[in-house]
Design a protein that fits this description.
Number of strands: 21
Number of domains: 1
Radius of gyration: 24 Å
Strand content: 15-25%
Structural class: alpha+beta
Largest sheet: 7 strands, antiparallel
Shape: globular
Strand order of the largest sheet: 1-20-19-15-14-9-8
Bound molecules: 6-diazenyl-5-OXO-L-norleucine
CATH architecture: 4-Layer Sandwich
Helix content: 25-40%
Length: 585
């Protein structure tokens, strides 16, 4: 039977309306479809919670705490202590970091800033030699390279205020691992071998992390950390004061003094981790939470996202030359602000409001040329380059519990195994976070960052960081994703690539962790990329004026997600030791 034309028109209109309604709904920030089939990489799934860290034993410990009824903060603190044993290159109690917490019932987010501080005796020029050059060895491998550690204060504060379990309970697994030994994995064996020179400059590190004949442990052998076990037990029994005022503090300070370091008992006694409000921004209908100065992470991430919001990515193919160009140009402008405008808010005024405003982002958007790279010397007139050493190490982990609480935590010793020094009798590796300060205005640090006077060394100041633990909320203000990574100055852009890929291209979190990365940071004026970007695309970028440089795989995104069916997903970066996202059933 022939249909009446009028009816056909109405029917077509209804169908069109439905298609529009559904597709519009599909891209709204509250019900968010992520492509999950036909992908090479897939996240882990679970029903009751998820932990993604860089090391499987630690993730399992976190998952077990969740299974036993602990919340995300309980699990996060347990993972933090466990990684200090199982991932000694970056997990730590001798360093510092930032924890971002989402409390689902209260719909509230908090940052715990447990970044290290410069000791009281620190001075602006303490790392300059007689000729006024930065003494790289002194800042990265001496006892003075260490800032006053914040990890124990930070983890314990988080547990006390937002956890539900006793400290002893969450520390028990870490104590047992340190005392009874861990089976050395292939990754740990390689990492100790690679860091042999760094660690063997110190007798105590040599004794603990190498065999009697000074050879590295082979995979399958057992690494015991008895001093660390005693230290952790002391903290579990006596709390934060054991580390900052008790016998542990005394041992640290004695060792520092023996090696002509400046950190004193007063430095430890006066250390406090502090609670702060997160940096908050919006991106295409989502809310982005991250950490404020003294980390540059949140401000820089949101500044870049605000610039990108001016583009219509539906018209820009994923990973096309145009995509790489736009994102990397936005990175360059934001890193200019990062390097020149930010420092510890206890010491300097940060123009945060301006930097994360949509208006400012629009001004930058108008400067970006779609056809040509803007050379860094135009964005910033002066800048000195030092060869960038991206070998440092940090680690990130993310946790989501069945109540919808999330924790996004990044902490670090800065380099692999920090300054390489283990404080005698404690098993604690010290950090070399002082290198995150501007040792000299205009000179680059280990991550090639050329930073300004706002980040100069002052007693009790915290060095500017790039750590970017991030949580994403949907339009109903529910936390749907927590992510973050190590990677020095390249931390911020890893979180960025996860967030934009998730929102603008609806890729799954495991795929996003696996795509070859790229990065710009103003200085050096280079487009850094991991192997895997098409040759033709790179040729287009070169024609646009990008000086491209292939770099080794870097970073390690650790991401958890709560999807629209309230299932939990986790992804642990394939660049790390293996699949370390562990779900709870
Ligand atoms: O806080 C920072 O930005 C640096 N200390 C992080 C160091 C790092 O991620 C090294 N990892 N590759």
């Amino acid at each position: 039977m022939k249909k009446e034309p009028r009816k056909l028109v109405i029917k077509t209109k209804i169908i069109l309306f439905l298609i529009l309604f559904i597709s519009n709904k599909a891209i709204s920030a509250s019900s968010f479809p992520i492509e999950e089939s036909f992908q090479i990489f897939h996240p882990e799934y679970s029903e009751q919670g998820m932990v993604a860290s860089q090391e499987k034993t630690a993730s399992e410990i976190g998952a077990k705490i969740l299974k036993q009824g602990g919340n995300a903060v309980d699990a996060a603190v347990a993972v933090g202590y466990a990684l200090a044993v199982t991932l000694p290159k970056a997990g730590n109690i001798g360093g510092g970091g930032f924890m971002l917490v989402w409390l689902n019932k209260e719909k509230k987010s908090i940052v715990i800033n447990y970044r290290e501080k410069a000791p009281f005796a620190a001075t602006k020029d303490m790392f300059l030699d007689k000729k006024g050059r930065v003494n790289v060895d002194e800042i990265t491998t001496s006892y003075n390279g260490a800032g006053v550690p914040g990890t124990v204060y930070g983890l314990n504060l988080a547990l006390k205020k937002y956890g539900t379990l006793p400290l002893k309970k969450v520390m028990e697994p870490a104590i047992n691992l340190a005392r009874n030994g861990i089976t050395v994995t292939h990754a740990l064996s390689i990492s100790l071998t690679e860091s042999m020179k760094h660690l063997q400059k110190n007798e105590e590190s040599t004794r603990i992390f190498f065999k009697k004949n000074k050879e590295p442990y082979n995979p399958g052998e057992t690494l015991y950390q008895k001093d660390l076990a005693n230290t952790l037990e002391e903290i579990a029994n006596k709390g934060t004061d054991a580390f900052y005022r008790g016998s542990i503090a005394k041992k640290i300070v004695e060792d520092v003094k023996t090696h002509k370091g400046i950190m004193t008992l007063k430095d430890l006694q006066d250390y406090k981790a502090i609670e702060m409000s997160p940096i908050e921004g919006t991106y295409n209908g989502f809310t982005v939470l991250s950490v404020p100065p003294p980390s540059s992470g949140g401000v820089t991430l949101i500044e870049i996202l605000n610039i990108l919001e001016n583009y219509d990515f539906k018209k820009i193919p994923f990973r096309s030359a145009e995509y790489f160009h736009i994102l990397s140009e936005a990175m360059n402008f934001a890193y200019y602000d990062r390097n020149n405008s930010l420092g510890d808010p206890d010491f300097v005024k940060n123009p945060i409001e301006k930097l994360i405003s949509k208006k400012y982002a629009k001004e930058i958007f108008q400067k970006i040329d779609l056809k040509n790279h803007i050379p860094s010397e135009i964005v910033q007139k002066e800048g000195i380059r030092r060869e960038s050493n991206q070998d440092g190490n940090t680690t990130h982990y993310s946790v989501v519990d069945k109540f919808g609480n999330m924790v996004s935590n990044t902490y670090t010793l800065n380099y692999y195994y920090g300054n390489g020094k283990t404080a005698k009798g404690t098993g604690i590796l010290l950090n070399n976070e002082m290198d995150d300060f501007t040792a000299k205005v205009g000179a680059a640090n280990s991550f090639g960052l050329v930073q300004g006077a706002k980040n100069s060394i002052e007693p009790q100041k915290r060095p500017l960081s790039s750590m970017t633990p991030t949580i994403l909320l949907n339009s109903k203000k529910e936390a749907i994703l927590a992510t973050g990574a190590p990677g020095g100055s390249r931390i911020i852009t890893q979180s960025l690539l996860m967030i934009t890929g998730f929102i603008d291209y609806q890729k799954n979190i495991a795929s996003l962790a696996s795509y070859p990365r790229f990065h710009r940071q103003l200085w050096p004026d280079k487009f850094y990329y991991e192997d895997g970007i098409a040759y033709e695309t790179l040729e287009v970028l070169k024609k646009m004026g990008h000086d491209i440089e292939r770099v080794n795989p870097y970073g390690s995104l650790q991401t958890v997600q709560k999807n629209i069916e309230n299932r939990f997903l986790g992804s642990s970066d394939p660049r790390s030791e293996g699949d370390a996202a562990v779900g709870v059933w």
